[in-house]
Amino acid sequence: MDDFLIRAMLAGFGLAVVAGPLGSFVVWRRMAYFGDTLAHSALLGVALGFLVGLNINFGIVLVCGALAVLLVVLRSRQRLADDTILGIMAHSSLSLGLVALAFMEHVRVDLMAYLFGDILSVGQMELWWIWLGGAAVLAVLVLIWRPLLTMTLHEELARAEGVPILPLQLLFMALMAGVIAIAMNIVGILLVTSLLIIPAATARLFARTPEQMAVLAALLGCVAVAGGLRGSWNWDLPTGPAIVVAATLLFSLAMVVTSSWRLVVRREQAADG
Amino acid sequence: MFGLTVGRRASAGPAVDDDTLVAAQRLTVTRGQQPVLCNVDVAVKAGQVVTLVGPNGSGKSTLVQVLTGLIRDHQGQVRRRDGLRVGYVPQHFRIDRNLPITARRFMKLAPRGRHGNWDSAVADAGVAHLLDRPMQGLSGGELRRVLLARALLSRPHLLALDEPAAGLDQRGQGELYRLIRHIRERYGCGVLVVSHDLNLVMAATDQVLCLSEGHILCRGAPESVRAHPEYLALFGSHLGPETAVFPHAHDHEPGEHCSHG
């Protein structure tokens, strides 16, 4: 196998292993659109990175983090519905990012790579970023797992039991911002949330405990990455979208398997009864 | 503001004798400009069941949340016994169906869920047969019992139950109040119950506080409160046990307070 394929595979696995557990929380906390909005703002982070001469990953984490805090504040004192605010933020920040990049005439960026990812061109340095950043996010997630899960189950009960709600919420946003920065190299801004949501949703069909769901989501994400790379190699497909399609195929397959399994069980029960 | 409240609470407050678990004096809570609670005095002692009744929006849940320490932004004095352990059962509880979790795991997530009072909490709330079921598959009554079992894990001194009977049928409600009585006797804990219907809690209650728009209208033993004119004006005598609890035909406009007899 070629070097760049190995790097792509390692990068994809690094993302999938983090996206599984974090994506489970995104699904449980119903934050799919929240994640989408954060991801859309990542382009603004890229522009900021170029403008200030900052590392682009830092720029993304910074902008996503700021937007996350802004959203938390807006949500608590808003007069508009959640999805309205998210819709406004998502598209305005994406457009703002595009406009800002267009203004920087001296900067030539491959917009397609940012929007849809460019996993095949992941270099040694980016691989380090992905694995170290991913390990940090995963370590924090493991540390706050119990209180975060309690808060996700029932916020009021968690508060009554002394869980610090606001710090946990902000920390969770920070983790999401980190994963978005990582994921942008691989599947791009527009497809980031798919790797958070789809493997987690697939894992839900089989899992009996939260931890099972998180681990299974990570594994399924790895399978999707491998499948997408394979498809991309064989049929010359765009790699980011191919990974998402592979994840969706897994989800569909799982749906068919579990539905028919349930049907069989019900038939047997009916026959027994 | 916050520091002031804490400071005031630390200074001389209502006298807390040995039996008193939590006591509030001249408690006032405002949300925005709107007063939610106004000059409320209340105390819960060990072994006592105190029931808060009142229509929706009367401040019952807020009062519970202040007494249990969930809301700390208030005026007036609130004194809790040192090291008071509170078991709280919230009014609304629904777990997202995307989150796979069994009752056992849910209980183990409680702060003392791993080493606490596990065996007797499970036995007292009668949830042994529910432990391996997914939370989303539990009925309203079963869910309430699991929440109660979880609250019992820490051997609470004070058990706060917000509308524990909501959504249960009559039989389920009867069972629940029997269970509350049993737990009070077994643990010797004080119990704070929110209800919008006095008749359901009659048998299990020592003291009733009747709330309306943030004020305490009347208080006392259930029988005396039921005969109190303020209570009758608020709830109407048709809610009395001598007539049917289920709705029956009225000969007046909706929204009007009825006062037969």
From TrEMBL, chain A:
Record GO biological process: response to zinc ion; transmembrane transport; zinc ion transport
Q: Which topology term describes how it sits in the membrane?
A: Multi-pass membrane protein
- What InterPro entries does the database record attribute to this sequence? ABC_BtuC-like, ABC_TroCD
Alphabetical GO CC annotations of the entry are: ATP-binding cassette (ABC) transporter complex
Enumerate the transmembrane spans: 6-28, 40-73, 85-107, 128-148, 168-201, 213-233, 239-257
Known Pfam families for this protein?
A: ABC-3
Q: Which domain of life is it from?
A: Bacteria
Q: Where is this protein chiefly located?
A: membrane
Report if keyword Transmembrane helix is assigned.
yes
Role according to the record: Involved in the high-affinity zinc uptake transport system.
Family per UniProt? Belongs to the ABC-3 integral membrane protein family.
Q: Identify this protein by name.
A: High-affinity zinc uptake system membrane protein ZnuB
What organism is listed for this UniProt entry? Alkalispirillum mobile
